[in-house]
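tool_call: predict_structure(chain=1)
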Amino acid sequence: MIVRRIVDTRRRGCDSAALITGFLPTGAAFARRTARATRRAMRALIFPGQGSQAVGMARDLAEAFPQARAVLDEVDSALSQPLSRLMFEGPAEELTLTANAQPALMAASLAVLRVLEAERGLDLARDVACVAGHSLGEYAALAAAGSLSVADAARLLRLRGEAMQAAVAPGAGAMAALIGTDLEAARAIAEAAALESGGGVCDVANDNGGGQVVLSGDRPAVECALGIATGRGIKRAVMLNVSAPFHCRLMAPAAEAMARALAAVALNAPRVTLYANVTAAPVSEPEAIRAALVAQVTGTVRWRESVAAMAASGVDRFHELGAGKVLTGLVKRIAPQATATAIGTPADVAAFAL
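tool_result:
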């Protein structure tokens, strides 16, 4: 869960003409061309999570580009539901339902990717060093990297949303954002809240970066954490308007449901490096990917560490594909030396350059 409004050489150093003529650039020209190729490969595609959805998402893109419309049609067919109409027209209350928001956000992200490939010549294997997604965005990242089909990703996210919603009785769980803190301080607050509430669950759900950490668990424990945070000088501590306590131990029934579902789905090794939420490290083996996706349901989304690890590997350009620009803002705080842009509209596509 991301809090909106609070936080705002794979390619050789020569071109095809050089290969045809047999001429290879030397000296300064070769160095410049090699540097450009290296920079081109040091690009990461990142995919947003729940909280970025909004009525109207992907509508302009679908109207302008048949590739975007084709992705949305594929998702509609996979779910046997006109989800794209809900994305375009709302109502917001229905779009925000977890079972709808999760596949909708994935669809919007993949629509952008397909348009970039068709209109701007983006080649994932050639032009992208790695991919990552925030929570449900990891499924979009996997679909982008060829590990999952778009249809399977949509069906898995529908199931994931339903299972997460059903795991805890309405009102029994809660989530809260701590603003102006770090992971260790947030963990200490969560542990103290669990004790003071009589053993209730209070876990770190998201380490988003930029001083934002989200707690999740039993409502009494999370409410207790707010009081403790205030007493410890945390800049801001607020309850979140969410339908369930995501990414905590209370989601164990949902993790079991996802383990069964993922076991029945074909998974390929990703075409580019994928950074997993729960490890903040690359993962490539299909069985390891399955395990990471199951662990993600109850585990901490380690977004800050994931972005930092990508930047440490040499990534200096981050492109957030899909709805909103929350991850773009977080990247700018986590890796200020890198550039970060959001791509979700026809104008954004036109401005994209390899």
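agent: DSSP finds 17 helices and ten strands in the chain. Proceeding to next step.
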